[in-house]
Amino acid sequence: MGRFVARRLLQMIPVFIGTTLLIFLMVYSLPGDPVKAMFGSKAADPATVAKLRHDYGLDQPLIQQYWDYISGLLQGDFGQSFTGRPVSDLLSDAFPVTIRLALFAFVIELVFGIGLGVLTGLRRGKILDQAVLIFTLIVVSIPVFVLGNMAQFVIGVKWKLVAPTVRDSEDLTQLILPAVVLALLSLAYVTRLTRTTVAENLRADYIRT
Fold first, then answer.
1. Of 32, 144, 169, 172, whose CB count within 10 A is highest?
2. What residue ranges do the domains of the chain occupy?
3. Could you tell me the CA-to-CA distances from 44 to 56, 60, 139 in Å, in that order?
4. How far apart are alpha carbons 104 and 90 in whole angstroms?
């Protein structure tokens, strides 16, 4: 067991290096100059641009920039955004909202996914079973970002059943719509998996006996 855990931990090293290197190179290859983008449509003073590039280390060779990036990550320093605010502060602000949204979506997925899976498994071949299968097929086929925009416009803006945007993350009623959209894809898989499992076990010998 110890050797297995150690081997898995060692395998994380090349995965971490490969992932961070790939992300770093993808961001680096994006067109445009991030320093000049900070000035927007205003003309940038060359001396100011050069100073900012030096402050952010953008005038260093690519390998040196990547090493500084990795060193900062390992020390818990995620750098600064172009607004001058530490990235760790931005993450700490978003983390509680992400946790609440993820937990809310998990509860929806757990309750409705398993519930619908059990019902359709017990009524396999019936109208309810066919309706749920069609529903889950549609949900799996639609990308989440398309489903989210459709739900926001139809349910939030047109029908005004729930808040279309989240203004107060501590208000759970405002998290209903994004949580449902976030949970739908996994809910579809859980429903189909639970349905198949229940239907197979109903045909088992110990159940018939």
1. 169
2. 2-77, 91-208
3. 16, 21, 48
4. 22
CA–CA separation, 112 and 179 (whole Å): 13
Whether the predicted pLDDT of 77 surpasses 90:
no
Q: Residue 6's pLDDT is what?
A: 85
In angstroms, rounded to a whole number, what is the distance separating the alpha carbons of residues 31 and 91? 26
Q: What letter would DSSP give residue 137?
A: H
> How deeply is 186 buried, as exposed, middle or buried, from its count of CB atoms within 10 A (0-12, 13-18, 19+)?
middle
Place of tokens 């955004």: 81
Cα 107 off chain centre by:
17
Residue with tokens 């939030």: 156
Work out the widest C-alpha separation in the chain, in whole angstroms: 85
Predicted model pTM: 0.68
Looking at residues 40-49, what average pLDDT do you find? 79
Q: In angstroms, rounded to a whole number, what is the distance separating the alpha carbons of residues 106 and 163? A: 20
> What is the spatial distance between Cα 175 and Cα 99, in angstroms, rounded to a whole number?
12
Query: 80 phi and psi, to 5 degrees?
Result: -120, 150
Taking residues 180-185, report their average pLDDT. Answer: 90
Counting other chains too, the contacts that 69-75 makes at CB distance below 8 Å and 24 or more residues apart are: 69/20, 69/24, 70/17, 70/20, 73/20
In tens, the pLDDT along 86-101 reads 888 888 888 888 898 8
Angle at Cα 77 formed by Cα 76 and Cα 82, nearest 5°? 145
Q: Distance between CA atoms of 188 and 198, rounded to whole angstroms?
A: 15
CA-CA distance, 187 to 117, in Å (whole number)?
10
